[in-house]
Structures are given as structure tokens and as C-alpha cells.
Amino acid sequence: MQKLKSFSLENGEMNGYFDEDGRIRRTGTLISASAHVMTVVVGSGVLSLAWCLAQLGWIAGILLLVVFAVVTLFTCVLLTDCYRSPDPVSGNRNYNYTQAVKVNLGGFKYKLCGVSQYTIQVGATIGYTITSAISMAAVKRSNCFHIHGHNTGCHTLNNSYVFIFACIEIVLSQIPNFHKLSLVSIVATIMSFCYASIGIGLSIAKIAGAGASPKTSLTGITIGQNMTSMEKMWNIFSAIGDIAFAYSFSPVLLEIQDTLKPSPPENKVMKKASTIGIGASTLLYILCGALGYVAFGNDSSGNYLTGFGFYEPFWLVDIGNICVVIHLLGAFQVIIQPFFMFVENWSREKRPGSKFIETEYFIGRYSINLFRLTWRTVYVILVTIVAMMFPFFNSFIGLIGSMTYWPLTIYFPIEMYISRAKIRTGSFRWILLKVLTLVCLIVALLGAAGSIRGLVVVVSRFELFRSVS
User: Fold this and answer.
1) 159 or 180: which carries more pLDDT confidence?
2) Interval 183-192: pLDDT, tens
3) Mean pLDDT, residues 50-54 taken together
4) Per-residue buried b or exposed e for 352-371, using 16+ beta carbons within 10 Å of the residue's own CB
5) For residues 30-47, b (16+ Cβ closer than 10 Å) or e, as one string?
6) CB atoms within 10 A of CB 98
7) Angle, helix 266-296 to helix 182-209, in steps of 10 degrees
8) Does the residue 155 lie in any domain?
């Protein structure tokens, strides 16, 4: 075992191994950046889109998917130009989202961005843990249904599956930074396409084999005996939050961009990667949501791979859920890396020269840092405990989506663009951007309200640490 205390760049030393800023040479490409984007964008949110269409109906459901995609792509294009300042091609690097906000907006907004970004990333990892446990439990239930029949309950506690997911994440969390995550993201991206494709295939098979088509509607579930107007309103708000969650990758966009080679310019490559990621995701979302809605109609469940609208072929349902788990193992790492790096950089600043914090031990090609090992393990354990306590899929992802979408996907990119482009206050372009910001804020607040109400309802009838699938 070898140990190395720190990495430094002397003038002219090992120049081929470092970029102009003294950091180890970045090797990311359009393929790796697109994989990172797809890993975060095509996530567990896709599983709830049939339910969303059941609440919103064909018109509002499809329209919202397209509008969220267009608005997200627009603000992501603005955000990619914030990686370097003041010039987007040759300026100084902003290594992460919060640093870009600090350089372009400064002061209070920088602190607000940091709190928003890291809170949302922590929340997302809790959501991924919950979803993975439900998918693992669905594999066991699927096999049980196949053996004992569809009328058997086959219920199982999720806590053991949360624990299994946590053990794997403790190991994966030792991947030191974004630059080492390319393979994980590529595998996760492949898995996301696999389970989305399985969901699409199963929906088509169910539609083809159905004697009578389930009821769908241009406006979603109709108000009647089983659905009050108030319940309908809250479900619509929650569905908006779910769709927002499906497009929430801006919190890690600049961190992904920081992995790219400097030539061609990072902002141009990242714009292409964002277009590929959002475009492919939107196509998958519309296919999954629309076909799932046609297959199940207004009775669509919140997660159509674990809600058991599909029982057979049981092995294909199993494969779909296993793909979900593998994907979320990678997505957990991609979404939380900025928070990991923030804590570790802050610790180095507070305790410079600390052997516990700074020393890297090498075993072959792999490095182990005792501080990283300790604190990341503790983090995963804490997330696991919270996931066991509050195992609510739909309302949780809706709340995360609503909280994420407005500040990090809308507000900060537009505010930084206004500052960088020196857009005059009161001008036509300034008014348009402010109106867009306000409209998106209202939509986000509605989604958050629906999700919070859903959480309150679920919390009122569950037992602590007894999550059952």
C-alpha cells in the first residue's frame, strides 16, 4: 500500500497531465456528458408519468411534458455559458453551480443557491433509495404472484431492501469524484433505456391483448363518486410536481460540464449533450406516459412497474425492476457528488494539513481516503434511516421536483444570463424573462402544494419503519 498526501502542480511539471488551471486533465466527451445527463434525467420519474396523465388528461399531460422540456432546454443552454467567466469560451472556470452563482450574482443569492442545491441533492438520494427498495420488493412479489396466483397478497417489508441498496452505495460512494463516474453513468443510462423500453413493451402487449380499452379522457379522471373536485385539484398539483422531477438535472449540469475536455469549447459540447439528453428523455416520457395511460386508463398506478398492472411475463417485470435498481445505484452517485465535494473541500479549508482528511492511500490503481470513507458511509447510513422512516414514492418525488425545478432550473440560470448579458431593467427581453420566471414559480408552488398535501395524507396512516410493498 502506498500513500500520497496531496497533489500539486509545479510550474512546468508533468504539464501533459494537467489542464491550464492546474487540475488533472479532463477527458470527458459528448458521449460521457450525455450519459451523465441521461443518468439523472431518465430516472424513476418516468414510472409515474402514466399516473400523471391520468390526473391531467391527454391535452394538459402531453402539453406539460413538451413545455417543461422546451423551458428546461432553454435555461440549460443559458447555464452552460456560465461555466467560464467572464467569457464563456476562454474565461476562468467555475467548477460548480454555486461558484458560478457566486461569480455572476454574489452575496445572498450564492448562499441561497448552495442551500437549495445541496438540500435537493440530499432529498433526491432519499427518493432514489425509496424507489430502489420498492423495485427490489416488486421482484419478490412478482415471483410470488407467479407461483401463488394474482389474488395472493404477497406483501413484504421494504426495510431489508433499503439495507441492501445502502450497502452497495457505501462501496460506490468511495468513487472520489465526477471524473471517475463515466462508466457508472453509461451503465445507468443503458439501464434506464432498458426499463423504459420494457414498460413501453408491456404497455403495448396489454393494449393489444385487452378485450375492452380502459377509460381515458382529454381532461383526466372525471369528478364523481370516487373523485371529489378537491381531490382532483390536489392530484393535478402533485402530477405537476412529478413532471418537474422528471426534468431535474440542472443542479449537476456545471459539475458535468467540468469533466469535459477544453477543446472543443465546453459550453458547445454541453449544449449538445443537454439537447440529446432532454430530447431523448422527452420522447421516452411521452411514449411511457401515453402508452401506460392507454393500457391502464384512469386507474394507472403511481409506479407502473411496481403497481402490478403487469403480472406476466413475470420474468420481464423482474428484469425491468432490476434495471431500475441498477440505474438508481448510478444516479445516486451522479446527483450527490457535488455535495460530497462541497463537504470535503470545506473540511480541507477548515483543517489544512490534517492527515485524516488529506492523505490518500493507494491499493494498486484505487485510492482510499479515511475521511472520505468515514463521512460518506455515515451519509449513506443517515439517508437509509430517513428512507425507512418516510417511504413515500409519488409525493416525495413530486416535492423534490417542485423544489428543484424553479430555483435551479429557472431562476438562477435566467438571473445569471440577465447579469452576464447586461440586459436593461424594464426592456422587452427583461420583461419576458421575468414573466417566464414568475409563471414557473407559480407552477412549482402548485406542484409543491400538491406533494406536501399527499405526504400529509400518507403520513397520517403509516407506521414508522414499517414500509410494506
Assistant:
1) 159
2) 888 888 888 8
3) 87
4) eeeeebbbbeeeeeebebeb
5) bebbbbbbbbbbbbbbbb
6) 23
7) 30
8) yes
Task: Summarize pLDDT for 248-281 with one digit per residue, the tens.
Answer: 778 888 988 998 998 889 999 999 999 998 888 8
Query: Minimal CA–CA distance to 325: which of 178, 156, 144, 138?
Result: 138
pLDDT beyond 80 at 86: yes
**Beta carbons of 326 and 83 less than 8 angstroms apart:** no
Task: Write out the three cell numbers for 17.
Answer: 497531465
Say if 467 falls within a structural domain.
no
Q: Which residue has the cell 375492452?
A: 212
Q: 400-417 burial, b for 16+ CB within 10 Å, e for fewer?
A: bbbbbbbbbbbbbbbbbb
Question: In the prediction, which pLDDT does 362 show?
Answer: 77
CA distance 306 to 51: 13
Q: What would the grid cell of residue 211 be?
A: 378485450
What is the pLDDT at residue 392? Answer: 65
Decide: helix, strand or coil at residue 343. Answer: helix
pTM tops 0.90? no
Mean pLDDT of 115-140: 85
Separation CA 232–CA 236 (nearest Å): 6
**Taking 90 as the threshold, does the pLDDT of residue 233 lie above it?**
no
Three cell numbers written together for 289? 406516459
- CA gap 99, 96 in Å, rounded: 5
Q: Rounded CA gap, 248 and 400, in Å?
A: 9
The predicted structure's pLDDT at residue 8: 39
Which pLDDT tens digit goes with each residue over 111-126? 888 888 888 888 888 8
Least confident interval from 26-30, 362-366, 411-415: 362-366
428-459 and 393-404 helices, crossing angle to 10° = 160
Please say whether the beta carbons of 450 and 235 come within 8 A: yes
Is 17 contained in some domain?
no
Cα–Cα distance, 450 to 458 (Å, whole number): 12
Confidence of residue 78 (pLDDT cuts 50, 70, 90): very high
Q: Structural domain tally of the chain?
A: 1
Is the distance from CB of 328 to CB of 43 less than 8 angstroms? yes
Residue 83, domain member (yes or no)? yes
Under a CB-based contact definition with an 8 Å cutoff, are residues 303 and 393 in contact? yes
For residues 419 and 204, what is the distance between their CA atoms, to the nearest angstrom?
49
CATH number of the domain bearing residue 236: 1.10.4160.10
Cis preceding-peptide flag for 264 (omega within 30 of 0) = yes
Find the domain containing 302 and state its range.
24-459
**Cα 61 to Cα 176: distance, rounded to the nearest angstrom:** 40
